[in-house]
Amino acid sequence: MTQFDFKSLSDLAGQRLIFGFEGQSLNSELKYLIKEYRVGGIILFRSNIESADQLRRLCMNARKYALDQGLPNLFVAVDQEGGQVARLRKPFTEFPGNPHIKTIDDAREFARITASELSDMGINMNMAPVMDVAPPDVDSIMKDRVFSGGANRVSRLGTAVIQGLQKGGVMAVAKHFPGIGRTLKDSHFFLPELNAELSDLKQTDLVPFEAAKKAQVSGIMLSHILYPKLDPDWQASLSKTIAYDLLRQDMEYQGLVMTDDLDMKAISHDMDTCIHRILIAQIDMALVCHAGPNITEAREAMMRYLEKDGELFESGCACVKRILAAKERFLV
């Protein structure tokens, strides 16, 4: 990994992308993404998983292929929260989800078993835990995915999961910054708004993310929610004000910052605009989770903007340094 020339344009762009793909093996599509697009990571869904043996072969073969192409080891990510969002089902352990995690011991047990099962498959990144706070008087879209209770309880349980996953060699990604627990609409289908003042967010929604930072969480995922009092023009996943000014500068978070899936309906902008905004906001990694033209458009836009804008190129080098540091720490 130390010999990786991350200043080459293709590699600089590719390492900042996590893509989904179709199939259950190291097929021609996946080889193309790794070899030609130089991707930093892939993300798995249920359609990619048939059995434990098949999944292990897929992950190990993909990671080896990346190394054979002169790339750093590959992020292999999955959403394994438990409950309704769990890509790995039986024979893997099926947990009922965050609302059923009541104690620190519960959180540690979930994290220990999940980390063991994921790492045994060759998966090294879990898009969990959810660190959103859902007030009891709000019919939150997240009510079936959050830890129950207020910000302090979410912080305690969430950091126990973070520490347990990472102790087991799996990177944890806290989501969905700066908090979507009070939203009523699903960003898979709509662009929700949370019209909260920053002072209000600091008292509730941001508390678990501050705790996650102190627990040295590997990554934080940005929401696709619009927060008009913070940025009236751009949702968090495309907002320099939220991703850079608030998270990176004010909160001094030094780990990886990544978008939620740019294929979701909350993103109505074209991929060129999305990538430009991501680069301006110095967001480390962009997720495009489904096979299709958006993958090619994202990579081409990333290449184009890095080539023509010296400032974006330089800040991009800093992003890739963070990515490589995370890979050095967790991917062996």
UniProtKB/TrEMBL annotation:
**Entry's NCBIfam families?**
PRK05337.1
| Domain of life the protein comes from | Bacteria
Instruction: Report the family membership.
Output: Belongs to the glycosyl hydrolase 3 family.
Among Pfam families, the record links this protein to:
Glyco_hydro_3
Protein's recorded name: beta-N-acetylhexosaminidase
Biological classification of the source: Bacteria, Pseudomonadati, Thermodesulfobacteriota, Desulfobacteria, Desulfobacterales
Q: Name one GO biological process term.
A: peptidoglycan turnover
Report the source organism.
Desulfobacter postgatei 2ac9
Q: What is its EC number?
A: 3.2.1.52
Residues forming the Glycoside hydrolase family 3 N-terminal domain are 25-292
User: Does this UniProt record's set of keywords contain Hydrolase?
Assistant: yes
